[in-house]
Design brief:
Blueprint: H1 2-11, H2 13-58, E1 62-74, H3 86-94, E2 103-117, E3 123-127, H4 128-131, E4 136-140, E5 148-155, E6 160-164, E7 186-191, E8 199-210, E9 221-224, E10 236-238, E11 244-251, E12 261-265, H5 266-279, E13 285-286, E14 289-293, H6 296-301, E15 310-315, H7 320-323, E16 331-335, E17 338-339, H8 343-351, E18 358-365, E19 368-375, E20 377-378, H9 384-397, E21 399-403, H10 406-412, E22 420-425, H11 430-433, E23 441-445, E24 448-449, H12 453-465, E25 468-475, E26 478-485
Antiparallel strand pairs: 1-2, 1-4, 2-3, 3-6, 4-5, 5-6, 7-8, 7-10, 8-9, 9-12, 10-11, 11-12, 13-20, 14-15, 15-16, 16-17, 16-18, 18-19, 21-22, 22-23, 23-24, 23-25, 25-26
Length: 489
């Protein structure tokens, strides 16, 4: 009966049409899926070839960097945490606590990083932290040569360094306009992670204008998911045109790359390089304020429609800002006709201008928009001479100091104070025994106020002649005097 039923059904023309149509679909569908797969594979192959072509052209201009320095290794018996050294990178990005240390004999230390050639006569860009405090720097070219490099300029504020080798007619990379870079664009990171020469990884730009990490005074990082690991620092982040859009600088993650890497926008580095090639030095404008970000509640209380802008928490005495009548509590809304989005935006834009530049601001004060014109001062960088003085200070008294910036003042709670901040302390030194530690603010030397590193260095030179230094320090909201004695030679 069932057979019959089937036969009778097959005799129905409508049934025959349905069965034949279904059979045709079964036969056609696998072919359709296969065609789609082949098309997708072809697209992936084409993309892979594009990556390979870009990497092949760019790789000869990417170099390995080895920086040699003499250090005093320390082990157990106390700790020393320098938030401005590689320890800080380890602590912030890998979650490692400050290492336990005790004095030992000086030894040679070699650190590795990456860099890239930007001119046929041997100029190279890399990170400042790759070559900081190096006695010698060697560059490894793709053809195996290892010329010694001269460190032409180191910029602590941005973590950019310029090197020079004597070789000529070198392949070099062109620099893109990083301001035009868009989130979602493909990028390649090339470098020497973990000592593995000319490693290429691919990803996209996942965000722009990242800041607030305390890695540098001026932060405006490109965020990417192109794999970046230790040793990639200083290498190029390039677009699909083979042009550099950034300098790979840091990663976020407790155990290596987790898909979040940060690169300095190449426009920031290009500004430094152009300034150096033009005048042999890099000078930045300085406004003389401590800016902060607005939250929605504060913005509403001040009568603003949104929280865009930078609120001034402190105006430095005799600064360009004070001379232009900028006051504590003002909100900077615009700079040269363009909206100021945040305190970081304000800092970075001012730093791109030369001392003496005239800038038009629009302020928000007590419910009114107020235009002001400012002539910028000169931002004082940490100089080579000051660093040499720091080395001597560490040798004599067992600690080093760093200029106080807006970020450090906010981090340690010193808004409104002046002085220099202790950066490292030898745990076996008198300074450590007297209570100095990283983050301590030094306000006076021998009852003379110190406003910057220059004041501090001058005061310490005088103090050394009389063998003692009376310091007024501030730490954990407590202010006290401590007397340090210089060692007998």
């Amino acid at each position: 009966m069932k057979l019959n039923t089937c036969r009778n059904g097959w005799a129905n023309p409508f049934t025959r049409i349905l069965v034949l149509s279904f059979t045709a679909l079964l036969l056609i569908s696998p072919l359709s899926v296969t065609a789609q797969d082949e098309e997708s594979i072809a697209t992936l192959k084409q993309m892979g070839k594009a990556f390979a072509s870009v990497a092949e052209k760019a790789s000869p201009a990417v170099v390995g960097i080895k920086a040699e320095r003499t250090v005093t290794q320390q082990g157990s018996g106390g700790y020393q945490f320098d938030p401005y050294s590689d320890d800080f990178f380890e602590f912030f990005f890998r979650g490692r606590p400050p290492r336990q240390r005790a004095p030992q004999q000086p030894r040679q230390q070699v650190s590795q990083g990456s860099g890239f050639i930007i001119s046929d006569d041997g100029y190279i860009l890399t990170n400042n932290h790759v070559v900081r405090n190096a006695d010698k720097v060697f560059v490894e070219l793709q053809d195996g040569r290892n010329p010694e490099a001269e460190v032409k300029h180191r910029d602590e504020d941005s973590d950019v360094a310029i090197l020079k080798i004597k070789d000529k007619d070198l392949q070099f990379l062109d620099l893109a306009d990083s301001d035009k870079l868009e989130v979602g664009e493909w990028v390649l990171a090339i470098g020497n992670p973990l000592g593995l020469s000319h490693t290429v990884t691919a990803g996209i730009v996942s965000a722009k204008h990242r800041a607030g990490f305390g890695l540098a005074t001026l932060e405006n990082f490109i965020q990417t998911d192109a794999a970046i690991n230790f040793g990639n620092s200083g290498g190029p982040l390039i677009d699909l045109d083979g042009k550099v859009v950034g300098i790979n600088t840091a990663i976020a993650g407790a155990s290596g790359n987790i898909g979040i890497g940060f690169a300095i926008p190449i426009n920031m580095a290009k500004h430094i390089y152009d300034e150096f090639r033009e005048s042999g030095k890099v000078e930045r404008g300085y406004l003389g304020v401590f800016p902060g970000d607005l939250d929605a509640d504060v913005a509403t209380e001040l009568g603003l429609e949104d929280n865009k802008g930078a609120i001034i928490t402190l105006v430095e005495e005799d600064s360009a800002a004070e001379k232009a009548n900028i006051k504590h509590g003002d909100v900077i809304l615009e700079m040269d006709g363009e909206q100021v989005t945040s305190s970081n935006d304000l800092r970075n834009r001012i730093a791109m201008l030369k001392p003496g530049s005239t800038v038009d601001f629009v302020l928000w004060r007590k419910g009114k928009r107020i235009p002001v014109t400012v002539t910028l001062d000169k931002r004082e960088p940490l100089t080579e001479e000051a660093e040499e003085g720091q080395d001597k200070l560490l040798e004599d008294l067992g600690f080093t100091v760093r200029a106080m910036t807006e970020e450090l003042a906010q981090r340690f709670g010193y808004e409104g104070d002046e002085g220099v901040i202790v950066s490292t302390v030898d745990p076996t030194s008198e300074a450590a025994r007297k209570g100095l530690s990283p983050g301590t603010l030094i306000k006076e030397v021998d009852q003379t106020p110190v406003k910057n590193l220059k004041d501090f260095e001058a005061a310490m030179k005088k103090a050394k002649k009389k063998k003692t230094a009376l310091l007024l320090i501030k730490q954990d909201w407590v202010t006290a005097y401590v007397l340090l004695k210089f060692p007998e030679k």
